[in-house]
Amino acid sequence: MDFVNVADLGHEGLATVLDLAAEVKTNREDVAGSRAGQRVGLFFEKPSTRTRVSCEVAAADLGMVPLVLKQDEVGLGKRESVEDVGRVLDRYLDVLAFRVFDHDNLVKMAAVTAAPVINLLSDREHPCQALADLQTLAEHRPLQGATVAFIGDGNNVCNSLLIAGLMMGTTVRVASPPGNEPSTEIVALARAGATAGAEVFVTNDPAEAVTGADAVYTDVWASMGQEDEAAERRQRFMPYQVNEALFHQAKDDAIFLHCLPAHRGEEVTDAVADHPRSRIFDQAENRMHAFKALLLHLT
Ligand code: CP
Ligand code: NVA
Fold first, then answer.
1. Are 136 and 286 spatial neighbours (Cβ–Cβ below 8 Å)?
2. % helix, strand, coil for the chain, step of 5
3. Measuring from atom 2 of ligand 2, which residue has the nearest CA?
């Protein structure tokens, strides 16, 4: 089974991986070495801190050998076709995990490999992030019936959170500037997979999204690869900054989430990022537990 789209796990698989993530967080030793001898390839077309390190540590804890592949050496789709890279790596590795610009390259790879292909972030989704997001929210309150407000760009992180959140019974409200809302295709996919009671709302009004929410989530305004739009976006997204005034419109015990890296002073102020109810570093830690659970589920 692949994990290219967050929905690939199915409802039962997603719930199983989240339960397992909580379990391996508490009992780290129980699964230590349980995948000894297997090899996981990690490939990055874009920079990474959390994903690279948490995945390497998770794999090593399970006794797997992590191999980090250099993008300029592999030349995915340039030095040789994406499919041929997949076919070759499939002969050496037990898991292929890729961070790519073009989501379609993951789909192409998954079509020709026997080994599971894991999406470590693409232009469309960041499914491993969504696992950690939901794990962190579940540490605060049950996912069924929870409400998350995602403020900012309807991007890869937003897409995976929307789909996975609704699968788990969590309502997701998105507030984006006009033109930066999640696509109608993603919203329809999220609705189609929703557990009863969970809904998706898309608005241009951040206060409307945040009011009464259990968690407020934001991400950078310009994702990797959009650096040339950063200045223009900084102007247009400023009304969507998560500052104390906005955060305080959520529930009194609401938590703050961010996938990181954060551009402090842009999408989030220091006061919110460092707020006692900010869970951003738990969330970063959970990337490791969630990835370990995913590896256990897929291998
Ligand atoms: N959240 C996340 O994926 O971080 P990195 O880009 O540092 O891996
Ligand atoms: N949306 C961001 C997430 C980084 C983890 C990006 O794609 O750059």
1. yes
2. 45, 15, 35
3. 223
260 lines ligand 1 (CB under 6 A): yes
The answer to whether 219 is a known catalytic residue is: yes
87 an active-site residue?
Answer: no
Q: Is the pTM value of this prediction over 0.90?
A: yes
Report the separation in Å between the CA atom of 260 and the middle of ligand 1, taken as the mean of its atom positions: 6
Name the E strands within the chain: 39-44, 65-69, 95-99, 117-119, 147-151, 171-175, 200-203, 215-218, 255-258
Ligand 2 atom nearest residue 153's Cα: 1
Ligand number nearest to the C-alpha of 133: 1
What fold, for 140-278?
Answer: Rossmann fold (3.40.50)
Residue 287 annotated to the active site: yes
Domain ranges of the chain: 6-126+286-298, 140-278
pLDDT tens, N- to C-terminus, the chain (299 residues): 999 999 999 999 999 999 999 999 999 888 999 999 999 999 999 999 999 999 999 999 999 999 999 888 889 999 999 999 999 999 999 999 999 999 999 999 999 999 999 999 999 999 999 999 999 999 999 999 999 999 999 999 999 999 999 999 999 999 999 999 999 999 999 999 999 999 999 999 999 999 999 999 999 999 999 999 999 999 999 999 999 999 999 999 999 999 999 999 999 999 999 999 999 999 999 999 999 999 999 99
Q: Which fold has domain 6-126+286-298?
A: Rossmann fold (3.40.50)
Q: Is 49 in the pocket of ligand 1 (CB under 6 A)?
A: yes
| Within this chain, domains 6-126+286-298 and 140-278 share the same CATH topology | yes
What is the torsional sign of CA 125, 128, 131, 135? negative
Q: Which two three-digit tokens encode residue 186?
A: 């993603």
Q: Which of 46, 50, 131 to mutate to test the pocket of ligand 1 (most atoms within 8 A of CB)?
A: 50
- The CA angle 224-112-10, to the nearest 5 degrees, is 70
Ligand nearest to the CA of 157: 2
Residue nearest to atom 3 of ligand 1 (CA): 51
